[in-house]
Amino acid sequence: MSKMNRYYEIIQAPIITEQTMNLIDDFNRYTFKVAKDANKIEIKNAIEAIFEVNVVKVNTILVKPKFKRMGQHEGYTAAYKKAIVELEEGQTIEAFNV
């Protein structure tokens, strides 16, 4: 398996919400859903390789499942790992600025 394939396994999806857009505007921080077994160094290397930017800092959060109910059906949302990545000043990821 090539390194780029591994990078795309680490970075699974961007998280785009009103709160994450505020983080981008105010602090130049981007939020991604990442593999549970990925560490901060792997996440940094993957972001730098995929988007060709310089990462200053990586924060990770394990998001726990939440109980949800829809009519008579009930269950839990999936647990996942979230990474908040701060880029060098002046750099952006164009995929978020659509």
Account of the protein in words:
This protein is an alpha+beta fold. The protein has one domain: Alpha-Beta Plaits (2-Layer Sandwich), CATH 3.30.70. Helix content is 31%, strand content 36%. The chain contains three helices and six strands, in the order αβαβαββββ. The chain has helices at 3-10, 18-27, 40-51; strands spanning 11-14, 29-34, 55-63, 67-70, 73-76, 80-87. It has a four-stranded antiparallel sheet with strand order 1-2-6-3. Strands 4-5 form a two-stranded antiparallel ribbon. α1 (3-10) packs across α3. The longest helix has 12 residues, at 40-51. It starts with a helix and ends in an 11-residue tail after the last strand. The relative contact order is 0.23.
* CATH class category label: Alpha Beta
CATH architecture: 2-Layer Sandwich
Distance between the termini: 31 Å
Task: Describe the main β-sheet briefly.
Answer: 4 strands, antiparallel
Features:
98 residues, alpha+beta, Alpha-Beta Plaits, 4-stranded antiparallel sheet, two-stranded antiparallel sheet, 3 helices, 6 strands, globular
Brief sketch in words of this structure:
The chain has 98 residues and is of the alpha+beta class. It has helices at 3-10, 18-27, 40-51, and strands at 11-14, 29-34, 55-63, 67-70, 73-76, 80-87.
